[in-house]
Amino acid sequence: MSCEFKGSVERPAAGEIPEINRYFRAVGPKSSPLAAAKGKIMKRRQFLRAAGLGLATTAVAKPAIAQSMPELKWRLTSSFPKSLDTLYGGSEVFAKAVAEATDNKFQIQVFAAGEIVPGLAAADAVQSGSVELCHTASYYYFGKDPTFAFGTAVPFGLNARMQNSWWSFGGGAELMNEFYKKFNIYAIVSGNTGCQMGGWFRKEIREVADLQGLKFRIGGFAGTMLTKLGVVPQQIAAGDIYPALEKGTIDGAEWVGPYDDEKLGFQKIAPYYYYPGWWEGQAMGHYFLNLNKWNSLGPTYQSILRSAAALSNEWTLAKYDAVNPAALRRLLSGGTQLRAFSPAIMDACLKATLEVYAEVSAKNTDFKKVWESMLAFRNEQYLWWQVAEFTYDSYLIRTRTRV
Amino acid sequence: MSCEFKGSVERPAAGEIPEINRYFRAVGPKSSPLAAAKGKIMKRRQFLRAAGLGLATTAVAKPAIAQSMPELKWRLTSSFPKSLDTLYGGSEVFAKAVAEATDNKFQIQVFAAGEIVPGLAAADAVQSGSVELCHTASYYYFGKDPTFAFGTAVPFGLNARMQNSWWSFGGGAELMNEFYKKFNIYAIVSGNTGCQMGGWFRKEIREVADLQGLKFRIGGFAGTMLTKLGVVPQQIAAGDIYPALEKGTIDGAEWVGPYDDEKLGFQKIAPYYYYPGWWEGQAMGHYFLNLNKWNSLGPTYQSILRSAAALSNEWTLAKYDAVNPAALRRLLSGGTQLRAFSPAIMDACLKATLEVYAEVSAKNTDFKKVWESMLAFRNEQYLWWQVAEFTYDSYLIRTRTRV
Predict the structure, then answer these.
(1) Which of B319, B96, B333, B313 is nearest to A42 (CA)?
(2) Does residue B358 belong to the interface with chain A, where contact is any CB pair within 8 Å?
(3) In a domain, A87, yes or no
(4) What's the pLDDT tens digit per position in B249-295?
């Protein structure tokens, strides 16, 4: 078959391996940036062990259903329209699981973006208590404070598995919920898109100079980085992107990936489809709960929400992974031109990104603290990732058509 | 830094991309192997929509706690010892979530391997009903029928995200539960290890001939493939591997990855640590439930088990990802020599694997059906994976130390 992707999937050169060995030995055993995570795991182990003993000895304890399972009817406002069935659908999976687990005593009614408040006002509605919770992307609120970006995705950040791991075991949940507390918010992970695409362009982007003056719709914090390269970033809601791109008000637009982008129709008006979305190696969604409402729940309902959110987290990424390949096939067979950002463009974007991290860190201690946590975690993760995961994926990409 | 991994992470060559475009167009729009998955998604959407309407109209329905939440005390036998705290710990996370969600009405007591039955007899204990459920690796039972292997991992199969996606949206859960029904078992996903390592060897494995006569401890179905290359596969339980390797009764052993392998102490007696574990690009764990017991549960408890399992699925992989990097650092700084299986060895193993798939498929229709489903899914997944995910990971592996 002609679609081997040889450029990126060279076999590991035997000569490289001893270098890794030398590096590891040179670094030696040292205090790991994961020490905190390990401490947490140990504490959790002790807790679980205690809980296990508790189970054994409290087997005859009377359940107190009345107090622990009050009848509740909450409203969830989504930042997403119903047409984006994977993002929006995650909330439905979540609400359904909560209702089932409580025999309909705890009901969460899901409203699409705009039905109660606009999609980008979801967090404000939660903060003020006008709804109990929302389903949103934390980075929509980076204008309030760029620290919000770490909840969803930051340029050259983690991939999807790493973000889950950082959140649960790398201190991410603790750091972010400490930060969200300032906004009267408690966050639970809701799902992930996986690595996103770099977006749709009316003209080819061949070199760094092609970015100069480019009007580009981009979500979240990455617009700040692109500004350094001359891009004029545009914040435009999902439904308004197509007409802007069609009229030429903007020159390009990124959304998510093949499945969602195809629904928005960009392929009809912008032939070049770039990858990777270096500003979204993954994108994690969250349920933002009003902190007072979250604290008002007993441990039973808190636990039920957490498990139901894990179900929607699993569901969302699994669905994106399942539906993206066929969508990419359809787009490309319809004439879309797939392009990789050139190494020079990637390097210029990385340089701009690192400058922004340094600048914002110098004046925002929350941002600095979270970025340092994520950066240390990322570098450890990729050191390990390149050994087993990446080598396995490389080999399968090269050989998948050998049957 | 000297640990760049240039061999595997070449930048995408611009000339390759048009080739992909051509391939896609040549293939054209066709009936996708994911059509079935999509149909399922649509059905689920309709179901969710119906459920959503149900929520709105049944808001005043009285909950029937007494019938839907009976007091239950179930026993879970794990195939894993407590010392493997990530595998074993997943069951504790699961049991704790179930107890919390039900205010202790549904209690699942977790027993380590050997406390009720040996680790490899867990499925039998579930089948016979002597315990209600177990936590195990499906491929332990490939001797009963090799179709069991697809539940956990098969050589040159999926990676962790792909396996989750295949299970939920690629027909995996339906195919496997149809098969498990023959053994009176219903399976729910419990967790994943991520891509495993290729194991520990007392001598270097430089070429295919070095495999001849090698006594190698290996779990699951992959021993069948290795037999074709002259390896003498050994099925040895976790606790017995170290003494066998120390005495030279075996020449090598694989277990999971850095964190678990370090606990078993292989680094003290076998200096060469190979990657990748091509027989376990991921390894999915399951809760196997006695089918009659599963069917005896109402929708409330079934839903609670499913959500709690999603929590342990998320927890297990996130923990492995968090703890493996530091373990690898410790191993390598202690003198372990990291080695990649050579391209010639990988190719010989792939060839042997494809022969086994063909041979077993010719005489086992269940096996054939599941392998064809997984193979079609895998090939679609890697076609898409190489575009955004792999390019992103490549770039981060190369540049992660640029700060």
Answers:
(1) B319
(2) no
(3) yes
(4) 999 999 999 999 999 999 999 999 999 999 999 999 999 999 999 99
